[in-house]
What does this fold into?
Amino acid sequence: MTDPSKLSVAVVCSSNMNRSMEAHNFLAKKGFNVRSYGTGERVKLPGIAFDKPNVYEFGTSYEHIYRDLESKDKEFYTQNGLLHMLDRNRRIKKCPERFQETKEQFDIIITVEERVYDLVVLHMESMAAVNNRPVHVLNVDVVDNSEDALMGAFLITDMLNLMAKSNDIDNDIDEMIQEFEERRNRVILHSVLFY
It folds into this structure.
């Protein structure tokens, strides 16, 4: 399998804003069939005061969030990069989506921090079996800032390019993860779950 579009991939962070969207953008440009999600209760973005984040419901459009922050303090939110990030996001899809609300099934789900990985695994284990289709849930730790999100997108793409070459991902994945971990000096969490 050398066609990346044959793999159905989800990338998941907490708010479906930075890390998952950077990877979504990058993977889509490389031809992957990709969706992105968050696992939080709500979408949280830094506010002007540290203890007063901007909070939105999942499903609120990136356009609305962009306009809201722009009206609150355009200079501040331009300076901290949020308006740039939201501009990118609104060109990729309409709004942040919550992983726990999707009915879609994937071959691979990639999370970007252990807490998100745990929430994805917990959610998958709590679902009633549908068709016993396997899904590989992998975690690649990515720090939540714009520079690390970009580097994380490169790492995730590198790992998925490796997996896209497999004709039997269920059989080959452990070896591919080990090769990736050694080459990139990273630890990858991995679980096999079923729909």
About this structure: Residues 42-92 form one domain. Residues 50 and 129 are 42 Å apart (CA to CA). The mean pLDDT is 96.
